[in-house]
Design a protein that fits this description.
By secondary structure, the chain is of the alpha+beta class. 20% of the residues lie in helices and 34% in strands. The protein has helices spanning 2-12, 56-68, 195-209, 230-241, 327-336, 341-353, and strands at 22-23, 28-30, 36-45, 84-93, 102-109, 120-127, 133-140, 146-149, 155-158, 163-172, 185-190, 214-216, 221-225, 244-245, 253-257, 262-265, 274-276, 280-287, 290-292, 303-305, 308-315, 320-322, 360-363. The strands form eight sheets. A six-stranded antiparallel beta barrel has the order 3-4-5-10-7-6. A four-stranded antiparallel beta sheet has the order 2-11-13-12, with helices on one face. A hairpin with a 5-residue loop joins strand 6 (120-127) and strand 7. The longest helix is centred in the middle third of the chain and has 15 residues, at 195-209. The chain is flat.
C-alpha cells in the first residue's frame, strides 16, 4: 500500500507544477482576529449513581450550590454526591462574539465519576485567561460513551462516557475588544513564514489600494495603513482577504513518521549524484532439542540434548545511481530494490548526511 501511494505521488508530481492562485484569507489571518479559550468549573447532577460519591471538592461544590439556592447543609453532614460529579468545562470564544450569542461546550469529569450520561450541568461561569467571566454555561449533556459495571467487578466501557458536549450550552456575557479599530496599522500574519509570499501579498494589496499602503515588515507580517474606525476597517479587510496571489513554491521537504513508517516527499526535492546500496542481513536461530528416553526398567534417566541450528541470510540489493533525480526517480529507484518504508527512511537519512539531498528532513 505504501509503495502504491508513493507511485501515485510520483505520477502527480513528476514534474514541478506551477503554484496555483490562492486567496489571501487562506494564507493567514489578521492580527487580533482570533479565538479565545474559556474554562469553567461546575457540577453535573442527575447521574444514575455514577458520580464522584464523597469526593471532597465535589462535596464542597455541592454545598456551595445548595447555599446559593437558599439551602444550608449542616456542618459535618456529607451530601453523598453519588448522583453528581465535578467537571471542567471548556469552550472557544470566536472573534467578534457578542453578548447573547451561544457557544458549544465540552464537559469532562474531573474526579472519579464513571459516566456523565443523563446528567445536567448546573449554571457555571466560564472565564478567560484574564480571569474575567465571558460566558455562562448550563444544559443537558450529550454523551456518546457508555459504561456499565457489575457487582463482581466486571465492566464494559464504550468510547468515553466521562466526557460530553452541550450544543449551544453557553451564553456569551461579555465581548472581547479585538482592538483592530484603533491600532495605527492593520497587520496580516501568514500562517507559515515565507519571504517571497509575504512580498507578493504586499504587492497585491498595493495594487488594489494604491502604492505604499502595505509593507512587508518581516517574513510573516504585512502592515497596512488604514483610517481608524471599525466600519471602514471591516470593509477594507473584507476586500483584502479575497485578493488572489500566487504563493511561493514550497521548500524542498521530506517528512518522516518513524513510528508508522510513513514518508511524504514533496515535488521540490532533488537528489545530487550519489550511489546507494541497501542490504539486509537476517540471522535465524532455531532450537530443536532432542529427548533421549531410557529403556523400560533400566532405571535410567531422561536426557535432553540441545540442538541448535543457525542460518544467516543476506539479501543482495543492487546499487543504484541518483543523478539530479526528481521525486519520480527516487520512488522508482527505491521500489526497484524492494525497500520497505523503514528502509526508505534509512536511505533518505543517509542521503541527507552525505549532502546529496538538498531538502529539509523532518522526523515526527
Amino acid at each position: 500500500m505504501v509503495k502504491r501511494l508513493l507511485l501515485v505521488l510520483a505520477a502527480l508530481s513528476g514534474a514541478a507544477a506551477p503554484a496555483s492562485a490562492a486567496r489571501i484569507k487562506d494564507l493567514g489571518q489578521f492580527q487580533g482576529l482570533r479565538t479565545n479559550q474559556l474554562t469553567g468549573y461546575g457540577i453535573v447532577v442527575g447521574l444514575a449513581g455514577t458520580g464522584d460519591d464523597s469526593l471532597e471538592y465535589a462535596t464542597q461544590a455541592m454545598k456551595g450550590v445548595a447555599s446559593r439556592l437558599g439551602l444550608q447543609i449542616p456542618a459535618g453532614i456529607n451530601p453523598a454526591t453519588k448522583n453528581a460529579a465535578a467537571v471542567i468545562i471548556t469552550a472557544e470564544l470566536p472573534a467578534f462574539a457578542k453578548p447573547g450569542q451561544t457557544l458549544d461546550i465540552t464537559v469532562s469529569a474531573l474526579g472519579k465519576a464513571k459516566s456523565l450520561r443523563g446528567g445536567t450541568l448546573l449554571m457555571s461561569p466560564m472565564v478567560g485567561a484574564d480571569g474575567q467571566i465571558y460566558a455562562m454555561a448550563q444544559g443537558n449533556l450529550a454523551v456518546g460513551g457508555l459504561g456499565v459495571s457489575a457487582a463482581d467487578g466486571s465492566n464494559v466501557v464504550i468510547n468515553v462516557p466521562t466526557a460530553g458536549r452541550i450544543p449551544s450550552g453557553a451564553t456569551v456575557e461579555r465581548a472581547v475588544d479585538a482592538g483592530f479599530a484603533t491600532t495605527p496599522t492593520i497587520n496580516f500574519n501568514l500562517a507559515e513564514a515565507d519571504l517571497t509570499t509575504v512580498q507578493r501579498v504586499a504587492q497585491a494589496i498595493n495594487a488594489r489600494l494604491g502604492p505604499g499602503r502595505a509593507q512587508a515588515i518581516d517574513a510573516e507580517t504585512v502592515a497596512i495603513t488604514a483610517a481608524p474606525g471599525a466600519e471602514l476597517r471591516t470593509a477594507l479587510m473584507a476586500s483584502i482577504e479575497n485578493l488572489d496571489i500566487d504563493p511561493a513554491d514550497a521548500a524542498a521537504r521530506v517528512v518522516v513518521n518513524a513510528r508508522t513508517g510513513t514518508v511524504v516527499i514533496n515535488g521540490a526535492v532533488r537528489i545530487a549524484p550519489a550511489a546507494v546500496s541497501h542490504g539486509k542481513l537476517t540471522v535465524k536461530v532455531d532450537e530443536k532439542p532432542q529427548v533421549s528416553q531410557p529403556a523400560p526398567f533400566s532405571q535410567g534417566q531422561t536426557v535432553v540434548t540441545p540442538n541448535s541450528a543457525i542460518a544467516v541470510d543476506e539479501k543482495h540489493s543492487p546499487m543504484f545511481l541518483t543523478a539530479g533525480a526528481s521525486l519520480a526517480d527516487i520512488v522508482k529507484a527505491v521500489n526497484a530494490i524492494g525497500a520497505s518504508p523503514a528502509d526508505l527512511v534509512a536511505i533518505l537519512e543517509a542521503l541527507k548526511q552525505a549532502g546529496a539531498m538538498k531538502a529539509e528532513l523532518i522526523v515526527l
